[in-house]
Write a structure and sequence with these properties.
heterodimer, A: 108 residues, Histone, subunit A, 4 helices, B: 474 residues, alpha/beta, Amidase signature (AS) enzymes, 15 helices, globular, transferase activity (chain A), glutaminyl-tRNA synthase (glutamine-hydrolyzing) activity (chain A), transferase (chain A), asparaginyl-tRNA synthase (glutamine-hydrolyzing) activity (chain A), ATP binding (chain A)
Chain lengths: 108, 474
């Protein structure tokens, strides 16, 4: 497989997708480091996997469900649930605006 | 006579019953020891402020009813990625600085029900992203054998807490090496149960498909007692297994290993490994033969592929799991993530992103299948596979600097078993340059009893289970 080079522009795009703000020095550092890391990952192409399926659950469990009944032991009381939040209003979390902002278009 | 900080779980219980000391005596003794040595080691991030009150209540219970709970009055250190009500929990990250959990994790809840008493929370790599504790936002932990060395990680604080004899037993968690590797570097015993053997509910998620809570302790016997308490299907974690849990301690104290067949992994005696470490592993193999086991050389996939699989799987799952840190419901804003955390989130975002998913994530999960199949084939003929935990002894403080793949390289010998969900015990097997070396004994999924039995027999027939004299090392 040909060598993959990750450019600073791509790092900026990934940072946006991951909702992270990077310092300019981090952009260049990460571009270089990601290129090295992807080199190591690409060694996996030496392994023939044409005959095997991907594994997503290693102990073989399938479709674990429970009865659709409210179990109060699983539910936090509202005051407890809100106790770690910096901003609340009338028993709700206050969240930042995510539509109609400068960032909206580029994130989607 | 042993001092209070040197006792195992059963020795503490004998002391309580004989009225040699009380739980308050033991806790005070340990707190004094922590006060004296912790400033040089940076093991604890938070101490339990109510610990003496809890110890008094335990003494009252023992006076009235004797010891009717498995871990009654056993002082423990808890890795800081387990949510503990009333004790701050940060996962060694600034984003959770000052966070007080809203609920108790499944495993700590089981430990409390069994009567354990929590001394405090231990330092770790931030969000468990590393193998050194050097990525902690609150400074590295120092190795009790030599404070200029790293303790390993990510459960470095918990391993150092045992090595420094600050507590009787500790709780850690392993995603790929995070129990076995720090246990090896600190010269103590670490036990990684099968994935899904102990619940992950309330354990701050790193890589959900491999995260496994497990104990770090002074002896294999103590890890077996803790494993008995924390194992089992957890209604709060759908990935826990319904496979019945064995009574682990009942499998211990075998006089020999006759009939046991052990595979010595050829690829784990790597060319880059020092001759001294190789020699210790070969001596361990001889010890197993002496104990009656059959030892044969076996071959596994080149460990370099495990690095690739683990890196992709771990980064991808980190990217997804750490999306929940939005600073809205709890914690601070995402600018508080450290450099290593950002690097991991972003690489995972990349490997999962449109156009790259098949090439990276799906490919890694397919190679993972091949690793699982290969182990399944080996365990048809062998009871366990052995090898070194880490290619060498503890590295120096600062070794992770500019090494974005430090953890993956140091954990090269444990990653295959982790991504395959196997169970494994790490025990001390000797010293190189006055630093401990660890041996891993790995068995098939849900063969905890067998892994503990073999490790216990080895440990009782060797003399490597030593602890540093902190007045000399610090």
């Amino acid at each position: 497989m040909h060598k993959v080079t990750i450019l600073p522009e791509e790092v900026k795009k990934i940072a946006k997708l991951a909702n992270l703000k990077l310092q300019p020095v981090e952009v260049n550092l990460f571009a270089e480091q990601f290129t090295q890391t992807v080199d190591i990952i690409n060694q996996l192409n030496e392994v023939d996997t044409s005959a095997v399926a991907a594994t997503y659950q290693i102990t073989g469990l399938v479709n674990v469900t429970r009865e659709d009944i409210v179990d109060t032991a699983r539910v936090l009381p509202q005051t407890v649930a809100l106790s770690g939040a910096k901003l609340t209003s009338n028993g709700f979390f206050v969240v930042p605006r995510i539509i109609d902002t400068e960032e909206t278009e580029s994130v989607i | 006579m042993k001092q209070l900080h040197e006792l195992t779980i059963s020795e503490v219980h004998v002391g309580y019953l004989n009225k040699d000391f009380t739980c308050v005596d033991l806790v005070k003794h340990l707190l004094n020891r922590i006060k004296k040595y912790n400033p040089k080691l940076n093991v604890f991030l938070a101490l339990n402020e109510n610990v003496l009150k809890q110890a008094e209540a335990i003494d009252k219970e023992i006076a009235e009813k004797g010891i009717d709970r498995e871990l009654l009055g056993i002082p423990m250190a808890i890795k800081d990625n387990f949510l503990t009500v009333g004790i701050s929990t940060t996962a060694s990250s600034n984003i959770l600085k000052g966070f007080m959990p809203q609920y108790e994790s499944s495993v700590t809840s089981k430990l409390l029900t069994a009567g354990a008493i929590f001394i405090g929370k231990t330092n770790m790599d931030s969000f468990a992203h590393g193998s050194s504790t050097e990525t902690s936002d609150f400074g590295p932990t120092h190795n009790p054998w030599n404070p200029e060395k790293l303790p390993g990680g990510s459960s470095g604080g918990s391993a150092a807490a045992i090595s420094a004899q600050f507590v009787t037993v500790a709780l850690g968690s392993e995603t790929a090496g995070s129990i076995r590797q720090p246990a090896a570097w600190c010269g103590v015993t670490g036990f990684k149960p099968t994935y899904g053997r102990a619940g992950r509910y309330g354990c701050i998620a790193m890589a959900s498909s491999t995260d496994s809570p497990g104990p770090i302790a002074r002896t294999v016997a103590d890890t077996a007692l803790i494993a008995n308490v924390i194992s089992g299907q957890d209604p709060f974690d759908a990935t826990t297994s319904p496979t019945p849990v064995g009574d682990y301690p009942s499998f211990l104290n075998k006089k020999d290993l006759k009939g046991i067949k052990i595979g010595l992994v050829k690829e784990y005696l790597m060319t880059s490994m020092s001759d001294e470490v190789k020699k210790l592993i070969l001596e361990a193999a001889d010890k197993f033969k002496e104990l009656g086991a059959t030892v044969e050389e076996i071959s596994l996939m080149n460990p370099k592929y495990a690095i690739g699989v683990y890196t992709v799987v771990q980064r991808s799952e980190v990217s997804s799991n750490l999306a929940r840190f939005d600073g809205i419901r709890f914690g601070h804003t995402r600018d508080s993530f450290g450099e290593e955390t950002k690097r991991r989130i972003m690489l995972g975002t990349y490997t999962l992103s449109s156009g790259y998913y098949d090439a990276y994530y799906k490919k890694a999960q397919a190679v993972r299948t091949k690793m699982i199949d290969q182990f399944a084939e080996i365990f048809k003929s062998y009871d366990a596979v052995i090898g070194a935990v880490s290619p060498g002894p503890a590295l120096s403080i600062g070794a992770t600097k500019n090494q974005p793949m430090f953890g993956e390289m140091e954990d090269v010998l444990v990653e295959q078993s982790s991504v395959s969900g196997l169970t494994s015990v790490g025990v001390p097997c000797g010293f190189v340059d006055d630093l401990p070396i660890g041996l891993q004994i790995t068995c098939d999924q849900f063969q905890e009893a067998k892994a503990l039995m073999i490790a216990d027999c080895y440990q009782r027939h060797t003399d490597f289970n030593l602890f540093p004299d902190l007045d000399k090392t610090l």
